[in-house]
Request: fold
Amino acid sequence: MLKWKGRSLAASCNCCVGPLSTTGVSRRQFVAGAAAAGVVAAAGFAPKVFAQAKPHRIDVHCHIVPPTWFAAMEVIGRSDFPLKNWSVQKLLEDMDKGGVATSMTSPTTPQVTPLGKDVAVKVAREANEFAKKMEADHPGRFGVWATLPLPHIDESLKEIAYAFDTLKVDGVGCMTSYGDKWLGHAMFAPVWEELNRRKATVYTHPTSANCCANLVQGVPDYVIEFGSDTTRTIASLILSGTSQKFKEINWIWSHGGGALTAFAERFQWQLVNTPPYRGKITLEQMNGELKRFYYDTAAISGGVTLGALNELVTSSQIVYGTDFPYRTAADHTKGVTAFFKGDDLKKVDRENALKLVPRLRSA
Reply:
């Protein structure tokens, strides 16, 4: 996961102001940074096709480094070594070592959240086109979770139309929160309404919310806060009625739903039996939502974490994920294959993801 240099996202996030204003970066500096990131682009599209021995897994949690996006991360001081060292070739090599046939790609946190509206729109569009070119250059090896310029709603709706109708992406990838708003907040309703109409898959990745960066000195946000933020946004979606209203959206939660398994009894008992939600949501309704969501294996490939998740939802809702370049496919394959066997392993490795991206059946 990310270990950012400089200020955390929450400390500097001001999502509704001008481009890169949170860091005092000008457009000229941004363009200069983009030029400096050209090495990523040069490394990114070679070789065109990489030899592989019939891998079969589908990785729903794989990060790419589009050059314009990387330039923005460089300018605001949020790049790190795994991102600087990334290339398409290294990704393909890692996929082959772990038996991954196809990786569903997206930039990692903070995506475009802190960039300001104009730059966020530009970077999101170029990230989606970069990902689609990867898919075209390496048939069958990649899919695309489109980046949206959230929290800017009108601009996100325009990008949804372009991403699905022109680029033909497989779904969208978004953060678990934006500033001080989680995904069940009313402001996001137009986005979910449109994605529900399209019966889209929404892959989510944790980030640092405004409330909760650097809470414990010396403990990076990705250790505790990322998992907590995923759990917060799951609660937000269910308790706001958003996930029940937009039933056609398939949600994927990174890292096995974060801290959800630790808090599951609070969702299933306290929330449904005490005010203010007693009488407003039943245990059946709560379980119906928790058990229809999908959860990936990235960074939870040990027996303790997989065991807890498998008790909550069973193998029918678990999808394979690696978190490349922060973790490897081989590492996760080892853990997943040690825990799941037979038909359960087939579901986690591939079959569940095929329900979300059916085009891959013929890939």
